[in-house]
Specification:
Layout (H helix, E strand, L loop, with lengths): L8 H10 L2 H19 L1 H11 L12 H18 L2 H22 L13 H32 L9 H4 L4 H11 L10 H26 L9 H30 L13 H12 L8 H35 L1
């Protein structure tokens, strides 16, 4: 009781707000996003470099190990982290909105407050949460893609691009001024939404199913290792099913980029051209480093989310006890 005078009413009110389920999920989602993306930043960048290569471009037609080694030789540690700052700036609000909106939407599908959802309801809520988070943070995603590839040794970009590298804000402003205003910052959003909605829906649905499967009989929650396993499984399933949309998203994001732009007319035109020039496997370029990053990324994301959320929700009981 001696510690009570240290906590004024505003502090206790703040703890009460943060401990609300939707708010706690929002905050925990931001933490989960930053942790998961930083853990796998080198593989994330390598995946993007693989994705943006069309037929005839051989600079990164390498194995994952050789691709990472090339990145290290040419750019060092900064090459591994190139675009990660922007990615974290994007992923914190993206992940926060995604987890927060999922907890908000699922209220409309619960028969009674706190009841378990059906797999279909989780799929729908996850899809809606994915769409919501994309619309809020998409400009940062397209800038992250540009930052990830502008320092890579693609011959068509030349040496100038590697010597003069604008930062996040400069890239954002340049795109806005020279590539069509606000629409330029949302280029590629249709294939993004088409891929993100089923991806996030599958991710939430599969995680809950895997989490239930990994929970020992008679226990309410699995341990940390089992949660990591459930996160890895959900990420792998969701990514594999929706990966071609991710390739289309990256291609459209650089569609007007000098030297490497593709000039696709529509989503269907892009699919037709990619399959014709690169084969069906062109829709799965970069899938190996992507799958390699899925396990640690989604595992660390779900674990850090649950740990942070449980801590924040636990503040409510502490406030009551005070």
């Amino acid at each position: 009781m001696a510690s009570l005078p240290e906590h004024g009413p505003k502090f206790l009110q703040l703890r009460e707000v943060i401990s609300q389920p939707v708010v706690a999920a929002f905050c925990a989602g931001g933490v989960a996003g930053a942790v998961s993306r930083t853990v796998v930043s080198p593989l994330e960048r390598l995946k993007i470099l693989f994705q943006v290569q069309s037929a005839g471009r051989e600079e990164y037609k390498l194995s994952v190990g050789k691709g990472l080694a090339k990145m290290w030789r040419e750019e060092g540690w900064r090459g591994f982290m190139r675009g990660n700052g922007t990615n974290c700036v994007r992923i914190v609000p993206y992940s926060a909105v995604q987890f927060g909106s999922y907890n908000f939407y699922k209220k409309f599908f619960e028969p009674v407050p706190g009841a378990d959802l059906t797999s279909l309801s989780r799929l729908i809520c996850g899809g809606a949460a994915g769409i919501t988070s994309v619309f809020f943070t998409y400009p940062l995603d397209i800038v992250r893609t540009r930052l990830s590839i502008q320092s890579a040794s693609f011959a068509v970009l030349g040496d100038l691009h590697r010597k003069e590298l604008p930062g996040m804000w400069a890239t954002l402003v340049t795109m806005y001024r020279t590539e069509g205003g606000l629409l330029a910052l949302y280029r590629g959003i249709i294939p993004t939404v088409a891929g993100v909605a089923p991806y996030v829906g599958l991710n939430f649905m599969t995680y809950e199913l895997a989490r239930t499967y990994f929970t020992p009989e008679g226990e309410k929650n699995p341990n940390a290792l089992r949660k990591l396993g459930a996160g890895a499984v959900s990420g792998a399933v969701a990514q594999t099913c929706t990966y071609p949309f991710d390739v289309l998203r990256r291609r459209f994001q650089i569609n007007t980029m000098s030297g490497i732009g593709y000039q696709y007319k529509s989503i269907f035109d892009a699919v037709r051209v990619i399959v014709a020039q690169e084969g069906f496997k062109g829709l799965y370029k970069g899938v190996v480093p992507n799958l390699l990053k899925v396990a640690p990324s989604m595992a660390s994301s779900w674990l850090s989310f649950e740990m942070t959320r449980d801590f924040l929700v636990g503040l409510k009981s502490d406030v009551v006890s005070l």
